[in-house]
Amino acid sequence: MDPQTMRPVYFVLMLVLLTSLSGCLGDGDSSDQVPGTYVVESQLTLIEIEAKSDYYQDDETMLWSVESGPFIDAIEDAGGNVVGVLFSLSYGEDESSGGPVCTGGEANQPDTITGSVTKGEWVLSDPGENPGSHDVNLTWYNQSLLSGVIEGVTKSEIEAQLAFGEEALGRYELSLTVDAEAFNGVLCSNNDDGEEVATVVSLLVLDFTVLNEDGEGESVLAVGDDSLPLFMFAAWIFPVVFLVGYVSTQQRERFHLDLDFGEPETEVVEGESTSDGETLVDSYRARVITLSALYVAQGVPWGFITVTMVTFLAAEGADAGDLAYLLTLGTLPWSFKFLWGPIIDRFQMPDLGRRRPWILIAQTGMVALLVTMLLVPDLTDNISLLGALFFVYNVFTALQDVSTDALAVDVLQSHEFERVNSYMFTAKSLGGIIGGAGLGTIIGIVGIRGAFLIQIPILIVIMMVPLFMRERPGEKRFPWDKNDAVEMADKSDEWDEGVRGFAVILGNIKTAFSVRSAQLGIAVSLMISLAFILIPILPLLFLQELGWSQEEFNATKGGIILVVTMLGAMAGGELGRRFGGKSMLMYAALSASLTTLAWGTFDNMWSEGWFMMLVWLVHTFLWSIVSICAYSLMMRVTWAEVGGTQFTGYMAMMNLSAIIGYQLAPIFAERYNYQTIFYIAAVLETFVVLAALFIDPEETDRTLKTAV
What we know:
Structural class: alpha+beta
Distance between the termini: 35 Å
Radius of gyration: 32 Å
Oligomer: single chain
Number of strands: 12
CATH class of the largest domain: Mainly Alpha
CATH superfamily of the largest domain: MFS general substrate transporter like domains
Shape: elongated
CATH architecture of the largest domain: Up-down Bundle
Strand content: 5-15%
Number of domains: 2
CATH topology of the largest domain: Growth Hormone, Chain: A
């Protein structure tokens, strides 16, 4: 079977699937976008946030404000949707006699007490006369939708008129004015300098469900209710299974399935030093410890964002869009981290190390951003600001990752790359356990701010590793240290050749990507994380639908799931060397796809904790194998001349793939139920198999072996 002749087959298959999905995603029959007949079930809750009594002088306007922040838990318990402010005023009459001929029977003149409430563009003022009371009831929802049958509108339009999100939270401005009137007669006059007014401020919280004409519906926080049949997805997946089976039995040599990604490990003994063992190029142990520690520093924030923070927001009532927003901004810098490659290759301080200064700059920025996040008031009400800070934070984290990968390319020997890469991946997972299970488990004790605070000393301790290490003999640890001038002079020519202009660097990058397998590596990288649509969906499923607690979910995803991730990474390295890395990638990805398909199919088992744990663990293990084998495959199609930049580019494309997956999540969640979303994820996982099928891992070395 000629790979060239197979391309039209895959193109047609993919076109058929995408065409069917695009039709389903269109506006044609979406329950959210098509006018229909609906009924709204609702419950209105009154939450008191302030009560006081003060004396207000005549003709004096008093201004003050109240905040929703201290009452956010009560608001969320009531539905989380603030739709108005009730300002209740109660007052008497206290006119006093002011003349000698007053009999005491003179009528008290009514006073006017005016209350006002302002929330953004919503404003309401209402007067009342004493003695008595009145309410200023400022609401901004369409009350007419809560009674009777609604026809001729879409579900989205109904929700837009009833739910207001963060716009309705925050500060509410209040004012009160007393216009006192006293009795003035010929022989008698009364005095009235103001009035004692008791006020109560309450928030109106609306919890509602939009029901269709059959009386079926769902909470606004849930995923959609549309579904697609299983056979539609099986019609795609099972032909892919047949294709892989055919290639594995009949075309293994043609599709390069038997290549061993491992290198001979007899060149040096692990831990053996070529000199004093004090620098990274001299000591295997120093290389492993340093690179692993730096990956732990990357894993801590990764675990915190994807597990602890996401779960915290889901428990506070965030929807799939909020979670996808946070994950997207946190991942976006990783998708463009390849831009750092030419910069760190071009601008260096050789006397302090080629990569170490960039690593220290990145870690300093990470610590500074964590301190800044501690200053953000009310994190749950400032998701937009929090997302922006996560973005900047991950700019520095991505810089550390690029610098660390470049350091690995510089100091690792060829036979160490596969094994040390597995150690680095495992170290990142360990950091993820700290940031996920560790911080996620104790968040109930220390709070979300405490979780931020704990990360600071962890990163500072890890920062000590690159601060005191040296890459090569003759380099300085600190700018004020004296270096070995003779040895550094001997290396000057090496630095001059290594630090090249941007034109040379970009030219080499163009040459590297001229190889067909290197180009296909981009396709693999862009496909590998599309199934991450499940990451923002799983917290909603487990917490909002299945009733798991926040601590249970954090301990699972940030603990045992990451442990299985590490086991899968180690297994992936060994299986890749034994059975061929490319073949293991394809088998594991296909097995993961079938697991996801089964996960969605057996939705009647979701209430069984053991089933959800089992299928989650199996899928995690399989996809860890996919990840490690994919990293190895990308290393094989990377040209050593631009190793750091090209490999970083592949990693960036993998993160861009994750962003695409995150952005697909709310699109699918708005329309489809959980079961269908699992089916879609299963199909997306098969794309990795098809993208990797035509890669020749040896093509780059064979083609560019003599290139300069």
